[in-house]
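User: Hi! I have a protein structure encoded as tokens and I'd like to know what sequence might fold into it. I'm fairly new to this, so please keep things simple.
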């Protein structure tokens, strides 16, 4: 396969998209009339633009292409499974790959999370987890116990229910949310904690906030606490030490389900298949996953559920109550076959590479903190964020041109690196085979991209430098 694309293709595709394609997350002014960057091919750590120019894929697509692009093993498995059995109804049959994948996942989940339910992606996985909580409390005779606790800066998906959990103003402002069902706590963002407050005091404050919410709303009305171990789209927010364990302990005290949303953190990004226990020391009731489960090669997500919860449902005495939730493409044979091979590839060397390279990746990114536009660089494993600020005294991002992330991305792309801009932040989560030399290249381009952005902002009078 050639990786050379030509201008004509790129122009044609961009025109067709502008005329006929509604892209995800458009702004009103551009809806159905938008031009986005043309990507024609990928290979390993790189994608290729219309001129065949290689761009390092800094965000691995959307934190998902964990084994890298153009993986021949995944392509072969997909092809073979399609020839064997391209689809089977999960309503009245079971296909080989789904049962095998569920069993392999059970070997790698913490505690007794021994059953999986497969969906078409992350939103459907979190949505299913929430609907399961509602069903579980209905059959247990606790129909009031339905409210969901989420946090600022959270991102859990694009269905009505999961979208209602999202914390960032940009994700909420123009969208309806089921506010009566959701209780929002503060983001556990150490960088944005009140000035002068110690990390320990900040953690106490966050845990107290949850305790107070439980007392105010009543534990009998709260069904679930949903949390990404690291808030990914929120800007790789790593909670303070002990926070997740203490939040988990409160859920144990009050019969609240703990749903760990590992759509980004599972399948290798932090060096483990699941991070909840391995990295953060908690055993949730449900883990949701997607993205890295197939390295983005097939739309698949899912949730691993504890045996104990399923036993309670089975023993509720409501034998005919229907959990009316499932998708035509639940347990898709091709998706599950890809996921099985993907697991093999992750455990066949990629997880080891994360352990070997991640400390170097984080240390090299830290060198960017000498740039005055950079307020903080943070990360864990192979995920990281560079957060820009107008000045380091206030750490205020708002006084900056809000498109600063996009400006950095544009400069970096000219130099051969795609970054994921999120307002005033740039997020990095490269394919897991990245080498030290490629980390050097990435950080060097980022340094140049940020430096050029600082020059532009000063020249345009948007930043005092
Ligand atoms: C933590 C988290 N949960 C859920 C989702 C939604 O997943 P999807 O876009 O596959 O529906 C995302 C997507 O970015 C995510 O980051």
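Assistant: Happy to help. Inverse folding works backwards from shape to sequence: for each of the 465 positions I chose a residue that suits the local structure. Here it is:
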């Amino acid at each position: 396969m050639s990786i050379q694309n030509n201008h004509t293709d790129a122009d044609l595709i961009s025109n067709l998209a502008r005329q006929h394609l509604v892209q995800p997350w458009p702004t009103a002014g551009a809806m159905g009339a938008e031009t986005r960057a043309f990507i024609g091919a990928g290979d390993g750590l790189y994608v290729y633009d219309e001129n065949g120019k290689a761009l390092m894929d800094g965000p691995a697509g959307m934190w998902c292409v964990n084994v890298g692009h153009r993986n021949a093993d995944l392509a072969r498995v997909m092809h073979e499974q399609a020839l064997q059995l391209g689809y089977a109804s999960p309503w009245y049959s079971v296909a080989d790959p789904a049962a095998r994948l569920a069993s392999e996942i059970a070997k790698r989940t913490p505690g007794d999370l021994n059953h999986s339910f497969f969906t078409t992606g992350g939103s459907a996985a979190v949505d299913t987890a929430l609907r399961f909580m509602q069903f579980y409390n209905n059959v247990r005779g606790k129909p009031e116990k339905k409210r969901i606790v989420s946090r600022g800066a959270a991102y859990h998906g694009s269905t009505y229910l999961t979208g209602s959990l999202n914390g960032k103003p940009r994700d909420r402002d123009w969208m309806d949310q089921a506010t009566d069902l959701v209780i929002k706590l503060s983001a556990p963002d150490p960088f944005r904690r009140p000035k002068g407050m110690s990390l320990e005091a900040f953690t106490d404050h966050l845990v107290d906030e949850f305790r107070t919410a439980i007392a105010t709303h009543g534990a009998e009305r709260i069904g679930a606490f949903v949390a990404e171990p690291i808030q990914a789209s929120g800007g790789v927010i790593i909670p303070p030490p002990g926070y997740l364990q203490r939040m988990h302990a409160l859920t144990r005290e009050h019969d609240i389900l703990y749903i760990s949303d590992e759509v980004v953190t599972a399948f290798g990004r932090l060096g483990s298949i699941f991070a909840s226990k391995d990295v953060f020391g908690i055993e949730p009731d449900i883990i949701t996953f997607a993205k890295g489960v197939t390295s983005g090669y097939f739309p698949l997500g899912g949730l691993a559920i504890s045996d104990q919860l399923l036993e309670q449902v089975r023993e509720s005495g409501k034998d005919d109550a229907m959990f009316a939730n499932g998708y035509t493409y639940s347990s898709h044979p091709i998706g599950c076959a890809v996921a099985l091979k993907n697991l093999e590839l992750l455990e066949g060397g990629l997880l080891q590479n994360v352990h070997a390279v991640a400390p170097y990746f984080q240390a090299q990114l830290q060198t960017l903190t000498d740039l005055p536009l950079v307020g903080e660089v943070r990360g864990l494993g192979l995920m990281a964020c560079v957060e820009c600020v107008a000045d380091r005294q206030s750490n205020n991002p708002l006084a900056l041109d809000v498109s600063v992330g996009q400006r950095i991305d544009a400069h970096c792309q000219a130099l051969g690196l795609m970054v994921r801009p999120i307002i005033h932040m740039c997020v990095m989560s490269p394919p897991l085979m990245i080498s030290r030399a490629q980390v050097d290249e990435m950080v060097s381009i980022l340094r140049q991209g940020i430096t050029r952005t600082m020059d532009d902002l000063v020249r345009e009078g948007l930043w005092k430098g």
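A useful reference point when you look it over: The longest helix spans residues 333-366. Feel free to ask if any position seems puzzling.
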